[in-house]
Amino acid sequence: MPKYYIKTYGCQMNERDSLQVAAMLEGRGFSAAEEEEDADVILINTCSVRDMAEQKALGKMGMLMRYRRRRPWLVLGYLGCMAQSRGEELLQESPGVDLVVGTQKYHRVVDYVERIWRERQERLMDDERRPIVDVEEEEGSQSAIRDHRLGPGQCSAFISVMQGCNMRCTFCIVPFTRGKERSRPIGEIVEEVRELARRGVKEVTLLGQIVNLYGRHEFPRVGGKSPFVQLLEAVHEVEGIERIRFTSPHPIGFREDLIEAIGRLPKVMEHVHLPVQSGSDAILKRMRRGYTAKRYLELVRKLREARAGLALTTDIIVGYPGETEMDFEATKELVRAADFDNAFVFRYSPRRGTPAAGMYGQVPEEVKEARNQELLGLVNKMFRSKLEEHVGKDVEILCEGRSKTNEQRLTGRTRTNKIVLFEGGDRLVGRIFRVRVKEASGCALYGEVEE
Question: Is the CB of residue 423 less than 8 Å from the CB of residue 409?
């Protein structure tokens, strides 16, 4: 039986796509390899949001080529966003790659892998490789990611509810790699959630490039509610599902009906990831984000008023073209004012084909790095303070299983998405219960199970 191995870079959407491909491969008789050196098929699911992610994928593929010396039948392929944006160019960058499949063709991967594998076993490709490249748009691809491979005791799952983005932020390559917004019907999503609940899943995370704009072009508002609020309500009614999360939203998608729903629906967790990108109005305008710092902070206020104990996290880009010291100071001021629980801070990375890549005022790398480190210092200080607020308190967690870094401990997440580590037996996996927090350290909380 041939074995496969999938290496994933990037966001939760990529992780979900990789799980879909794995499920389809296993449905055709392939089995998962524990290590890449044991695999007959190795696929890299790529990200294009930053240059570093692309360079990692290219470097990884170069390293994988060495396995061909002892396994000439090995099938190697690129999937995902970099495959979509570069297409056949990757055949030149990585000579010997067999497969380049874009973001709308994950459901085709198993057919292509099977074809290449069969031909290679029949020794038709010993002398001349026949690579497959498929990056064409395909209608209905938004509904192709719905099969789930669950591990033992798995209690949480990602649900892809839409694909693509129409926003055209000047720094972002997603509209080019994922295409236009395409949403799945509510009934189809709800049935997927019901099936997961029947299999023991208690928490679902709804995924979309801009998830809170779900269905705005395909489905009508009903009773003054947006399609996304209708979706939240429908998932909320599924028996067995106890927790609902969603990512990643856009600030302009938080209308009054969604803010009200976050306050009204108890299964929706008290955590919102709300990308701000910058605290400078001048930079936000250059980014084409559609809001000001003042409007963003007003949204933060409304969300916290709607839901007590709400945790907010965000994304921030430093060193954007034209960013001055005054702009950077405005970003730090917004971070303090918003009182984030945590933030993902990135140095601006030019993406080929995006407007920002050709803008005047490109910031030197050493300035980007200095600002990145300064803002990380501020964010990490705030994060540690937020963790320490939990010491001595009881928190509700969903136990996800053994810690990846310490098999002696179990791990779970609070309603506000904080990681909690604690000791206990496997009988706790998949259950929701309370833990008394004893200590805050690093990026996690440490606690004891309340009997």
Answer: yes
